[in-house]
Amino acid sequence: MHMVRVNPEQTDRYTPQASPARFARGWHCLGMSRRFNTAGAHSLQAFGRRVQVQSYPDVSPRVLLDEPGHQRELPAFEQDGLLFAWHDPQENPPPAHLSIPRITGHDAANCAEGPGWSNWSWKETILTAQTGQVVEHLVRLANSTHVTAGDPLYFKNVFEGHRATQYFEGPLHHSYQLQEPAPQGAKILLANSVASYFGPAVMISQLDYVLEDRSLDAVVLTAHYPIDEQHLVLMTGVMVRTEQPPDPELKAVAAGHSTQILRSITNAVHSRLQRSQDEDSGKIPGADSPVAALRRWYGQFFVDAYDVDSGMTDRFEYEVDTTMPMDLWTRSSARNLILRRVNGKQLA
Amino acid sequence: MSNIDQDQRTETPGTQTGMQPVRCTECLTRVLVRKSVWAQTSVKWTEEALDLCRERPASAEGNLPRDQFVGCETLRAAIRDATVQGSLELADQDAP
């Protein structure tokens, strides 16, 4: 397995493959926009092509894709300090309802009073993997080593339209714990997170962590873009809610967590690639499994817009909830409240 | 009252995957459900079923992850009761 941590500017050394692969339709994050802010042309490899980001003073950068014989301009925008580009093999403009939501809202980073958001702590790496293998991370939590058997847990995947969402509430697995915490860093006892893919390549996670001594409110952005069929750039950014000026300890926590998430996803992708070469290779997941649901959903980004069907976009929920055992449910007040409302009478 | 349509079971697409139809007690929307064990539930909606749901329009929805519609609580209760009553079978009978 080949994996290197590099400055993404160096990705030019990968020569895109000659065969015309199909890359996903959707918004892709190309990285932090300040990387492209110096006037002039910045080049990177993406979608099997050379991509040039042209920057100008006081206007949004232009993203140009080198096609044989000409350059194609990709729709692009800057938001939350990040540069996004719309890739569509059919070259249609991006529909408005597929936009990436703004993270910081109106109470953004630098408001003078009260807590705001820290700057991004940002990490990038190159993976030898296909994009779908990274995306599957979203559904693997329920039956993987992330969860310790016996712990109370709420986990849910919801697929609908262009969004795929994961709800998680429970103890955080050790692979996500900070390996090199700040001197006074505390263990994360409980995590409550909601994460959504908006299209094929941009995931926003809203996290509440309960630490030994306090709670931490964070946003994590996980995104990738394909270099070619076999390589991709994986990015993670972490923002934490903090007093202004930012608490230095929290900044350290954000930086550590960003590294940890990147490492955890990278390790998960690697071990899964390894496993799939061994015993898993012949197994086809059941049609109601979250992996199958994710693959149906992910398929919509690789067919022409006209060929997207309801099987790819209809709402599908997969839930694991160990917080409400059957005997508790049969005598719970929650059940009676709901049924009383439904039936208009008190139940025995 | 049972929340499940026994008679339609054989005709419903999805039953080959062990999914069984369940009606919500509030709006009579019908979804396909598979419970492998008590703690695990898969729900397949159609566009028509979503249009019938009364709980969803009452919730304030947004695009950010925490602002999205998590699911219909009334339907969740109906699925749990169908399981308690035995009309919705657990697919993995041997599991606890």
Task: Describe the 3D structure.
Chain B: Residues 1-10 have a biased composition (Basic and acidic residues). Chain B: This is Ferredoxin. The complex is a heterodimer of chains A (348) and B (96). Chain A has 348 residues and is of the alpha+beta class. In chain A, 18% of the residues lie in helices and 36% in strands. In chain A, strands 1, 9, 10, 11, 12, 13, 14, 15, 16 and 17 form a ten-stranded antiparallel beta sheet that branches. Chain A has a four-stranded antiparallel beta sheet with strand order 3-4-5-6, with no helix packed on it. In chain A, strands 2-8-7 form a three-stranded antiparallel beta sheet, with no helix packed on it. Chain A is globular and about 70 Å long. Chain A starts with a strand and ends in a 5-residue tail after the last helix. The model of chain A is unreliable at 1-17, 106-114, 142-147 and 180-184 (pLDDT under 50). Helix content of chain B is 24%, strand content 15%. Chain B has a domain at 20-49 and 70-96. Chain B is globular. Chain B is built from three helices and three strands; from the N terminus they run E-E-E-H-H-H. In chain B, strands 1-2-3 form a three-stranded antiparallel beta sheet, covered by helices on one side. The A-B interface holds A 101, 103, 156, 158, 160, 163, 165, 167, 194-196, 198, 204-206, 286-288, 310, 314-322, 324-326, 329-330, 334-335, 338-339, 341-343 and B 14, 17-19, 25-26, 34, 38-47, 50, 62-66, 68, 70-71, 73-74, 77, 80-81, 83-84.
